[in-house]
């Protein structure tokens, strides 16, 4: 986290009005997560050299547990942004509008383990669309918000 507040975007009703951008960013990030899943599975396969199809499936299952690292590390170290968020001009901030830090970024990304479930995605979208601060459940747990990275649409930029 930076001590510089020049890029701080305080989460409010205006700055969190990024539901469409969040959906588009999620599509981009889902592709990146799929690439990560395949790459980790292939890497594990090269290291372990499973001899059966069940062994490969087991490695793919283990690779699922690396998925929160994508959002956790990128959002924690890259101005609160993943590839999708950066492309769409949104970012994750804490309650004060600062970068979330690795711990909060990782916590909000725990559901990535079950990301490929349509139920998880539907619940997340419902929470974003209906809440005042447009937070997913794990955004609330982690104390994070997704905001317009520019603080645009009249949002409070400090």
Automatic annotation (TrEMBL):
Q: Which residues form the RDD domain?
A: 19-142
Q: Which organism is it from?
A: Halosegnis marinus
Q: What is the lineage of its organism?
A: Archaea, Methanobacteriati, Methanobacteriota, Stenosarchaea group, Halobacteria
Question: Mind telling me which GO cellular component terms the entry cites?
Answer: plasma membrane
User: Is Cell membrane tagged as a keyword?
Assistant: yes
- Which key words are in the record? Cell membrane, Membrane, Transmembrane, Transmembrane helix
Compartment(s): Cell membrane
Q: What is this protein called?
A: RDD family protein
Where exactly are the transmembrane stretches of this chain?
23-47, 59-78, 110-129
Superkingdom as given in the UniProt entry? Archaea
The UniProt entry, under InterPro entries, shows:
Pra-immunoreactive, RDD
Tell me how this protein sits in the membrane: Multi-pass membrane protein
């Amino acid at each position: 986290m930076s001590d510089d507040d020049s890029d701080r975007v305080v989460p409010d009703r205006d700055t969190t009005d990024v539901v469409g951008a969040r959906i588009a960013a999620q599509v981009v990030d889902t592709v990146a997560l799929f690439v990560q899943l395949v790459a980790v599975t292939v890497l594990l396969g090269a290291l372990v050299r499973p001899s059966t199809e069940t062994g490969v499936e087991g490695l793919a299952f283990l690779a699922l547990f690396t998925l929160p690292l994508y959002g956790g590390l990128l959002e924690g170290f890259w101005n609160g942004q993943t590839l999708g968020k950066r492309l769409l001009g949104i970012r994750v901030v804490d309650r004060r509008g600062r970068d979330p830090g690795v711990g909060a970024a990782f916590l909000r990304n725990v559901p990535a383990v079950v990301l490929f479930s349509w139920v998880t995605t539907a619940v997340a979208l419902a929470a974003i669309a209906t809440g005042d601060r447009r937070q997913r459940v794990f955004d609330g747990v982690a104390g994070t918000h997704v905001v317009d990275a520019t603080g645009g649409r009249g949002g409070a930029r400090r």
